[in-house]
Specification:
The chain is an alpha/beta fold and 708 residues long. The protein has 26 helices and 21 strands. It has 4 domains: 71 residues, DNA polymerase, domain 1 (Orthogonal Bundle), CATH 1.10.150; 124 residues, OB fold (Dihydrolipoamide Acetyltransferase, E2P); 154 residues, P-loop containing nucleotide triphosphate hydrolases (Rossmann fold, 3-Layer(aba) Sandwich); 157 residues, P-loop containing nucleotide triphosphate hydrolases (Rossmann fold, 3-Layer(aba) Sandwich), CATH 3.40.50. 40% of the residues lie in helices and 18% in strands. It has a 7-stranded parallel β-sheet with strand order 11-12-10-13-14-9-15, with helices on both faces. Strands 16-21-20-17-19-18 form a 6-stranded parallel β-sheet, with helices on both faces. It has a 5-stranded mixed beta barrel with strand order 2-3-4-6-5. The longest helix is centred in the middle third of the chain and has 31 residues. It is globular and about 105 Å long. It binds adenosine-5'-diphosphate and magnesium ion.
Length: 708
């Protein structure tokens, strides 16, 4: 056995091997996913309590102070003159001196044997205590004392180092486990920190001024001062970001190195498309289209994300890419997260493509068995050039003759695996993903680290900004008046009801009742449509068609319209319970209007008194900038709320904070690039490679299994 393996084995020992850790403690730790000594060392505090303490020889009378020191004596006595009075006395010693503290109790309970024994176990001489209280001059001895301290707490810090520290770790906990237990355990484990090997190459540590791992670990738990705590945290946050971005970059590298067939179109189909389009492309659209065409012409697969605010015209970009692939003899899959959006894409694409003699079909969960069989066959024989669909495209029976390009719209609605799953339907096809939810740069680096990003940073000409107003139920009538006015002028309106997914049935009932109420009481003069996720596919199609053709000038809808739905004639959107949505989602919803040259309006209804909600709605009133809103959303709600980890594919971050540690993320990103440049295979850094796979096991770099 080599020295290194024996050390690793020691760190991999069960926590129960540590002195003073009982089976019960070990069992409790398991609820925190801690089993080994190494797990304990890597269980970082959530925060630290800093006790700003005064040296005992520096305290002065009438001042409230906190002192930290060793308990040198502890006694309980009864007053001779007053029978009910009990006195508990402590003598505390620090490096500078000692001071006495006395607590007075005036109740017979404090004379009980039970209470006294408990106190004696609690305050054992030698223990470290933190005392806060007001300093007085004892009238009898003239010494400075602390009488009736507001707090006296024994802290379970046993090592000498921790004894002089007054920074105490506070750990994330689960039910049935206290901070005292975790502190006790990390105390016991901390002696093993010096055995931790540092997987980071020394050169890299030097270059980015990072603490060594063993020092970082020891000091993240029991720092001696704030400066070393900051340095320890910096190193560990760096690690989290570093391994994450390294994984993403490696993944990108792996994808890049797969061979793929270059797509070099003659451009005829695109020219034809341009001639039938009722508009010309914006400068931004042209730029992005060219970036895509360049990628497609390369012999390695494209892996590009197109970001563009709602209404910036991403669909046409997808069509241009699709036509290039089709012209070169390949098939294309276009996937959307909702049936409503897939249907809409199908309709608008079919409109254009039929004029160009390109075959297209729609495949969703509600496609009939007969149609489905036909589609499967046509895809396999290559009869069908482009398939538009939902998750149904993942199904095993969907096989292509030669898939050349996979497009995923509203990619933020899918996990990272969606890309891979669709890609596996062909031999390394090119991949184009699109999103209207711009995610903050920090998140983009982590989640999309493996993608090239194109930006449509311009809206089609003539768009006006949407007048946005937060209202309450009391002022709702103003919005209703405006809806009436707009409908009278031939425009249309959405009324959005938020649904809580957990209780679909209840919600459904609420949606149906609300629709009826709005129809009968609020707008009896207009025909009101209803759209919700539980409707059958054909019903949804009818509801949308009726709205798009103006049969129902007002549509009451759940958030199924959130992404992508395009009805340019709609100019008002009223969002009920706006407090239930995040900024990015509100922005998406608001993007359903303002899709034409008409002035549009957005009303955010909320009676919430919460300051945070009020602030969010104010931000909505003031900004139409998707990027700014996404940044604000991250600040106001935190990353967890914005992207479910599961959905984003982003692992839980134990210590890094995406809202505060942006700078470190940048540095980690640079470091990851530096490492890969030096050695793309990481072969010369085996420890680094091991650590990488330990941390990101779930990110298989070259997935070969088809998930289903
Ligand atoms: P996104 O998917 O980016 O939200 P869409 O692709 O649905 O936006 O486009 C929004 C609307 O703008 C559609 O009605 C589309 O036909 C129209 N549009 C797209 N590009 C242009 C353009 N260059 N000029 C005018 N209208 C455009
Ligand atoms: Mg779209």
């Amino acid at each position: 056995m080599t020295y290194r393996t024996s050390i690793q084995q020691m760190l991999d020992l069960s926590v129960q091997k540590l002195p003073g850790i009982s089976t019960i403690d070990a069992y409790k730790l398991r609820t925190l996913k801690i089993q080994t000594i190494a797990d304990l060392l890597h269980y970082y505090p959530r925060q630290h309590l800093t006790f700003k303490h005064t040296c005992i020889n520096e305290v002065t009378a009438d001042e409230t102070v906190t002192i930290v020191g060793k308990l040198v004596s502890h006694q309980i006595s009864s007053s001779r003159s007053k029978p009910n009075l009990t006195l508990q006395k402590w003598q505390i010693l620090d490096k500078s001196g000692s001071i006495g503290c006395t607590q007075f109790y005036n109740h017979p309970y404090y004379q009980s044997h039970e209470w006294r024994t408990k106190q004696q176990t609690l305050y054992q001489p030698g223990a470290i205590a933190i005392v806060t209280g007001k300093v007085k001059v004892d009238s009898y001895t003239q010494n400075l004392v602390i009488n009736n301290p507001t707090k006296i707490q024994v802290v379970e810090l046993e090592s000498a180092k921790a004894a002089c520290s007054s920074i105490i770790p506070v750990y994330p906990l689960s039910k049935g486990i206290t901070n005292e237990v975790v502190r006790h355990c990390t105390q016991a484990a901390i002696g093993y920190a010096p055995y931790l090997e540092d997987p980071l190459p020394e050169g890299l540590r030097g270059q980015f001024e990072l603490l060594e791992l063993k020092e970082a670990i020891a000091n993240i738990h029991y720092p001696t001062d704030q400066a070393i705590l900051d340095a320890a945290r910096r190193r560990l946050v760096f690690d989290e970001f570093f391994y994450l971005t390294l994984t993403m970059l490696k993944r990108r590298q792996a994808i890049r190195h797969r061979p793929s067939l270059p797509i070099v179109p003659t451009g005829q189909l695109i020219d034809q498309l341009m001639s039938i389009l009722p508009f010309s492309l914006t400068k931004a659209q042209k730029k992005v289209a060219n970036e895509i065409l360049f990628d497609l012409s390369q012999s390695n697969p494209m892996n590009r994300l197109v970001q563009g605010d709602v209404g910036s015209g991403k669909t046409i970009i997808a069509v241009i890419a699709a036509l290039s692939a089709i012209e070169s003899g390949y098939q294309v899959a276009l996937m959307a997260p909702t049936e409503v959006l897939a249907q809409q894409h199908y309709r608008s694409l079919a409109d254009w493509l039929e004029q160009l003699n390109v075959s297209i079909a729609l495949l969703t969960g509600s496609t009939s068995a007969k149609q489905r069989a036909q589609i499967h066959q046509d895809l396999e024989t290559g009869q069908l050039s482009i398939i538009v669909g939902t998750h149904a495209l993942f199904q095993e029976k969907v096989q292509f003759q030669q898939l050349g390009l996979a497009i995923i719209d509203e990619q933020h609605r899918f996990g990272v695996n969606a890309r891979e799953r669709l890609q596996q339907k062909g031999k390394s096809p090119h991949v184009l993903t699109m999103t209207a939810t711009p995610i903050p740069r920090t998140l983009a680096l982590t989640i999309h680290g493996d993608l090239d990003v194109s930006q449509i940073d311009e809206l089609p000409p003539g768009r006006q900004s949407i007048q946005t107003k937060a209202i309450t139920n009391r002022t709702r009538h103003k919005a209703y008046d405006l809806i009436r006015q707009e409908v009278a002028r031939g425009r249309q309106a959405y009324i959005i009801l938020p649904l809580i997914e957990e209780s679909e049935k209840l919600d459904l009932k609420a949606a149906i009742e609300e629709h009826q109420r709005i129809q009968e009481q609020d707008f009896p003069e207009f025909q009101i449509g209803l759209l919700h996720g539980q409707m059958r596919s054909a019903e949804k199609q009818t509801a949308i068609a009726h709205f798009q053709t103006g049969i129902t000038p007002i549509l009451v809808s759940t958030t199924v319209v959130e992404v992508g739905v395009d009805c340019p004639n709609a100019t008002v959107i009223l969002i009920e319970h706006a407090e239930r949505f995040g900024l990015s989602q509100l922005h998406q919803l608001r993007g359903r209007v303002g899709r034409s040259i008409y002035q549009s309006y957005c009303f955010l209804v909320s009676d919430s008194k919460s300051d945070n909600v009020k602030q969010r709605l104010r931000v909505m009133e003031q900004s139409q900038d998707g990027f700014y809103l996404a940044e604000m959303d991250l600040r106001l709600r935190g990353p967890g709320q914005i992207l479910g980890t599961q959905q984003s594919g982003l692992p839980e971050l134990a210590i890094a904070d995406l809202t505060k540690d942006e700078d470190l993320l940048e540095i980690a990103y640079q470091a990851a690039q530096w490492v890969l440049k030096k050695d793309p295979t990481l072969t010369c850094w085996s420890a680094l490679q091991q650590e990488l796979s330990r941390r990101h096991k779930f990110f298989d770099l070259e997935p070969t299994v088809v998930l289903n």
